[in-house]
Amino acid sequence: QVQLVESGGGLVQPGGSLRLSCTASRMIFNIIDMGWYRQAPGKQRELVASITSGDSTTYTDSAKGRFTISRDSAKNTMHLQMNSLKPEDTAVYYCNVHSILSTYWGQGTQVTVSS
Predict the structure, then answer these.
(1) pLDDT over 90 (residue 75)
(2) How far is it, in rounded angstroms, from Cα 59 to Cα 62?
(3) Alpha-carbon distance values, 25 to 1, 75, 78, 110 (Å)
(4) For residue 13, which phi and psi values (nearest 5 degrees)?
(5) Distance of CA 81 to CAs 55, 101, 105, Å?
(6) Residue 3 CB: number of other CB atoms within 10 A?
(7) What confidence category does residue 3 fall into, taking pLDDT thresholds of 50, 70 and 90?
(8) Rounded to the nearest 5°, which phi and psi values hold at 88?
(9) What is the DSSP string of 25-79?
């Protein structure tokens, strides 16, 4: 069974940056797309950014211009560079991998933006 492990979360001041990473326990084949989701307290989980197998990227409006999603297939990793963080970015961030055979989720990493 594939496991996804997120890292890089933490406490940061408004305007600061964090880089989240997601590493798979083994190679995942036939990936359709990969993404970062977040869930704030009392809110539904939402898609923040996604990247396809062809490296086409999409972002939610609030993330455009501030976040960058990337992947390194050779290392089974995906990253989310988050700049100019705002308090409203506070949430648990989850990585997701959607392949032809299955969908995988990480356990989540907490991001808190506060002064």
Answers:
(1) no
(2) 8
(3) 9, 10, 12, 21
(4) -75, 155
(5) 16, 28, 19
(6) 12
(7) very high
(8) -75, -5
(9) SS---SEEEEEEEEE-TTS--EEEEEEETT--EEE-TTTTTTEEEEEEGGGTEEE
Two tokens, residue 1: 């069974």
Parallel, antiparallel or unpaired: strands 103-105 and 91-99: antiparallel
Is residue 89 classed as helix, strand or coil in its secondary structure? helix
Position 94 scores a pLDDT of 98
Q: What is the mean pLDDT of the chain?
A: 96
Measuring CA to CA, which residue among 80, 75, 68, 85 is closest to residue 13? 85
Residue 76 has pLDDT above 90, yes or no: no
Q: Can you tell me the distance from the alpha carbon of 70 to that of 41, in angstroms, rounded to the nearest whole number? A: 26
Give the three-class secondary structure for 107.
coil
Structure token digits, residue 82: 């988050």
The β-bridge partners of 69 are 80
- Copy the structure tokens of residue 87: 């308090």
